[in-house]
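During the reporting period the student researcher (J.K.) took over the structure-prediction task from the postdoctoral fellow and processed the backlog of single-chain submissions. One of the processed entries is reproduced below for the supervisory committee.
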Amino acid sequence: TMKNPVPQAASLLLEKLMLLVHVRPLLAGSGGEAAPPAPGYYDTSCFKRGDLLEVPRTLFIHFGIYLGENRVAHLMPDILPAFTADRRHIQQVVTNKRLILGVVARTASVRVDTVEDFAYGGSILVNHMDRLFEHQVLGSEEAARRAEKLVGATAYSLLWNNCEHFVTYCRYGAPVSLQTDKFCETVKMIIRDQRSVLASVLVGLASIVCLGLAPSTTLPTIFIPFFLWMAG
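J.K. obtained the following structure tokens:
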């Protein structure tokens, strides 16, 4: 049976748009790798094992599950697991270059880092998402155990398997990404607004120019199915 090209084309374009949004801020600051805060920078006495930690960034949010003893399990794009299984190298702090290449290659790992390495100087919100999933919160120990079982190399997708999918599966039992859903809804609104059709096309063209498509992929095969899917 032939696969329906509409969801595939839409997914491809949305992935590239999200990649553009996520990677640009990193590229802007990739001239040098800043060191994470020194140990003890964060007061971990208020964290409990199984807590969902949330670190707001400029254009996105990073998530992790607290395991206790200043350790956080979190999913990060990383190209290195595709080339080596040596934990000594993989466990080193993920640089911007490793992260960007991991996003492009769709490879990642669920890793355990200190709170300082996880948050990298950002402010931390604790269980901020519980208010949205108040009837689905699993036990703290169950959330931590789920996170520990998933430690290791994994596939990565901005749309289907990112750090938010990881923590919501661990703490609430189902992998969802609210920021991905919000992004997709915003794109749909732009497409459906007839006054913004030209802007939508320009955004799509910008993503192609900045991120590139396979030489065999033509503009109609991407945009026509994408528009039909968005209108549905």
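The committee noted the following: Residues 213-232 have pLDDT under 50 and may be disordered.
J.K. will present the remaining backlog at the next meeting.
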